[in-house]
What we know:
Elements: E1 2-8, E2 12-19, E3 30-33, H1 40-54, E4 60-64, E5 68-69, E6 72-73, H2 88-96, E7 100-104, H3 105-116, E8 125-131, E9 135-141, E10 144-146, E11 155-156, E12 159-160, H4 161-165, H5 167-172, H6 177-195, E13 199-203, H7 214-217, E14 224-227, H8 234-245
Parallel strand pairs: 1-4, 4-7, 8-13, 13-14
Antiparallel strand pairs: 1-2, 2-3, 5-6, 8-9, 9-10, 11-12
Helix pairs in contact: 1-2, 3-8
Amino acid sequence: MKVLGIDIGGTGIKGALVDIPSGELLTDHIHLPTPQPATPAAVTRSVQKMVRHFQFAGPVGVGFPGVIREGVVGTATNLSPGWIGKNAKQIFRKAMKLPFFVINDADAAGLAEIRYGAGKKVKGTVVLITLGTGIGSAVFFRGVLIPNTELGHLPLHGKDAEKTASAKAREKYDWGWKKWSKRVREYLHLVETLINPDLIIVGGGVSRRSEKWLPRASQGIRAKVVPAKLYNEAGIVGAALAGAGGRLITSSTDLPPFHI
C-alpha cells in the first residue's frame, strides 16, 4: 500500500511516498519552507504543492505541530493561531478531494519508531522526544499511544522547555554541543521524574549527530536513552501510518496497525 506522508513543522514541511507495511520511503522526501504567517490557507497551499509534486491520488497522512482531536486543532504554538478550533482534516480533504488523516506530529514520529525503529517490540513505557523548532513528545505504554502529551511545554528555568532545550534554542543562543546537552539533560530528567519510562527515544534532525551530545545529555538518566533510528524521517513515516490506518489507535482494545 502506498501512502503520502507529510510532516508539517514550524520551519519546514516535508513529504514522501511511503510503502505500508514496510515503512520504507518510496521516493526522496521533498522539503518546502513553512509559509509565514502559517495560516490555514497558506499551509493548505503548501500541502497542495506536495500532493501535486508526487501526482498522488491516494490516502494522505499529515503530522501537525499541535494538539489534534478528531482532526480539530487544539494548539498551534509554532503556526498561526488561526488554526485553533479549525478541523485540519476537513480543510485538507475539501481542498484536495483526497482521504486525509491528521495526527500530532510527535505522535506520528513516535508511531514510526514504535513500529519500525528504536521502540520496536519494547513492551514497557516508551517516550519519544523530538528536538526541533520546538520540543514534541509521544508516550506509549505496551505499544499503545497516549496522544497529545505536549511535554515540550513543561516548565524549565521558568520558561517552556522548548524555549531553552530545543534545537532552535541551541541555534538562537549559539550554544555549543556541551552547553546545549546540559539543557537537554535537565529536560530529560524532568520528563523522567514525571513518567519514569523504560526507554527514551530522542528524535529530530539533531538525532543524526547524536554522538556529539547524547552521551552527555543522558548522563544520570535512569531510563535507557537512544537516538531515533528513522532520524528526521520518522514524522513522514508515522504520518503515512496514520493515513493508512484511517483512525488513531489509542487503546489496547483497538486493532492494528498501531497496537503491538
